[in-house]
Each structure stands twice: as structure tokens, then as C-alpha cells.
Amino acid sequence: MRIHIATIAIAGLALAGAARAEGPDFEKEIWPFVKNSCVKCHQPPHKDERGRTRKPKADLVITNKADFLKGGEDGEVIKAGNPKESSFLQRTLLDMSSDDHMPPEGKADEWTDEQKKLFEAWIQAGADFGKWERDPEVDLKDE
Length: 143
Description:
- The chain is an all-alpha fold.
- It is built from five helices and two strands.
- It has a two-stranded antiparallel sheet with strand order 1-2.
């Protein structure tokens, strides 16, 4: 009986490890903190509370998969499999004193070290968005 329980436990751990090897789940693990820290400045053009049209900073929209992958005025911001070439991550790693650090100080919550590592792992594993295509709460285009 003990052998069977141990075998089942080891098999369960192996399956859990294999699932994790695919990388973090974008929708459940990545999107919540990206949305919290980045969407305010990187959503599609929209009207603010005063009726003024607001455009995404650096022409980068991240509220849907297609635009996130397209990138912004500097091109792609995510290079699947290559965190060092993924500026979306690299800007979070810059010193706070850098003008290129994201998010800008005082504009949104900084990513924790754990979140930065999780995002890096997601990119390294291939930047798979899974079934996530867009966030219907913020991917609203008025124009």
C-alpha cells in the first residue's frame, strides 16, 4: 500500500512540474499585475472623464493579445523566449532614477521582484497567452 501511495505522489509531482515547465498562466498569473500597473497608460484611445481623447503612451496598447504582440513606437516589446530582448520586462528592471523605468514612479504600483521573475519565466517559456485574447473591461475602443 505504501509503495502505491508513494508512486502516486511522485507521479503527481512530476505532472505538476511538467505543467509548470510550460510557463506561468498569462491570464491567471501575469495579467492581473500587468493590468494593475500598466493599463492606465497603455490602453486603446479613449475618452477621459472630461471628454478628452487619451492615446496610449508610446503607442503601446496591451489590453489585447494582437496589440501587445505588435508593440508600440519602438517595435515589439515582448520577444518570446528572450527576456533580455523584451523591453516590456527590461524597463521594469531599470533603476527608478531612469527616465525609461516603468511604471514611472508614483504613476502605478511597481512590480515586485517575484512578479518580475514570473514575467521573465513567462517570456522564457515562449510568452504563451493561452486562451486570453483581450480584457473586455479595458479593451474598449471609442474611435
